[in-house]
From TrEMBL:
Residues 11-322 form the Enoyl reductase (ER) domain. It comes from Erythrobacter ramosus. This is NADPH2:quinone reductase. Gene3D superfamilies: Medium-chain alcohol dehydrogenases, catalytic domain, NAD(P)-binding Rossmann-like Domain. GO terms for molecular function: quinone reductase (NADPH) activity. It holds the Pfam family ADH_N. Keywords: Oxidoreductase. It comes from the Bacteria. Its EC number is 1.6.5.5.
């Protein structure tokens, strides 16, 4: 039987323990994957605590993205074979040594991408792509302001925005995170907690308002970021680990600007074909070396509490990952 992080009730990492997953058969359209790496995000921990906007059924195994090797395929799976290297995402179940998932959720890992990179790639980069291309309609030559640019989706947005031809301004809370964003392609970086933050943003864009705000932060960051938009700007709401911010409704009117929600989970459920096409696009760009996550720390599965706590603190410049291949 495979080991997994399991909680009988929602709560902090201390509420979870290593247990054994009950074996289950692979359905005709499913695949069993031996997990070699799993990404750890703030949202994963939030979901484990029962504080996400949608609560999964209990008992619950956290984790929403992983990578590994196909070890068994269902009778109607024709596109994947035993031994294939694959990345996948889903609603829980990834903090484990194996997972049974729909074949439709799998993506072949490009040559040159290792398991830890693949395990932290799909969710962040599909979110950034969906936000900037489908929702924000980012055009080459526009200016993109990325909040939380040293975090998972923020760093992905820096790379995607640069690939799409934008001038990218990265906002991050630490020097290490700003340096990471600049190394990822940002044209300028500003200190997220600076008193003169808006002045820094405006100076970085030659005194003009920005075209798009990519906001995975929320809280007190939302209002000044929206005020930094130029005429016709778009503010993309990705998440709110900083809390749910408030916004005066006269601001969109005065700026001719839009507040746009981005929900990658519902997008995948309601528009699976477009979501699949987006996933194929970002993995093709990864194969070309254009998009690639940065791994900050690796943990074995038995140190899951420490890893989850570090994901909540959010001080790492880069991704935190379970490395099961070397466990």
């Amino acid at each position: 039987m495979a080991r997994a992080v399991i909680g009988k009730e929602f709560g902090p990492p201390e509420a979870y323990a290593l247990g054994e997953l009950p074996a289950r058969e692979v359905a005709p359209h499913e695949v069993r994957v031996a997990i070699r790496a799993a990404g750890i995000s703030f949202v994963d921990v939030l979901t484990a605590q029962g504080q996400y906007q949608v609560k999964p059924p209990l008992p619950f195994c956290p984790g929403s993205e992983a990578a590994g090797i196909v070890k068994e395929t269902g009778s109607k799976v024709a596109e994947f074979y035993i031994g294939d290297r694959v990345a996948f995402s889903g609603w829980g179940g990834m903090f484990a040594e194996e997972a049974v998932v729909p074949a439709s959720s799998l993506q072949t890992i490009p040559a040159g991408m290792n398991f830890t990179e693949a395990a932290t790639f799909s969710v962040s980069y599909t979110t950034a792509w969906h936000a900037l291309v489908d929702r924000g309609k980012l055009q080459s030559g526009e200016t993109l302001l990325v909040l939380g640019a040293g975090g998972a989706t923020g760093y992905a947005a820096v790379q995607v925005g640069k690939h799409l031809g934008a001038r990218v301004i990265a906002s991050a809370s630490s020097k290490a995170k700003r340096e990471l964003a600049l190394a990822g392609g940002a044209d300028a970086a500003v200190e997220a907690r600076a008193d003169e933050w808006r002045e820094q943003v405006r100076a970085a864009n030659n005194g003009k308002g920005v075209d798009i705000v990519f906001d995975p932060v929320g809280g007190d960051a939302t209002d000044p970021a929206f005020r930094s938009l130029g005429w016709g700007g778009r503010h993309l709401v990705i998440g709110f680990p900083g809390g749910i911010g408030s916004l005066r409704t006269n601001l969109p009117l005065l700026k001719g600007a839009s507040l746009i929600g981005v929900d990658i989970r519902q997008f995948g459920e309601k528009e699976p074909q477009r979501a699949s096409e987006n996933r194929k696009t970002i993995f093709a760009l990864a194969e070309q070396g254009i998009l690639r996550p940065k791994i900050a720390k690796r943990y074995p599965l038995d140190r899951f509490r420490e890893a989850m706590e570090e994901a909540v603190i959010g001080q790492c410049a880069g991704r935190i990952v379970f490395d099961l291949a070397s466990s």
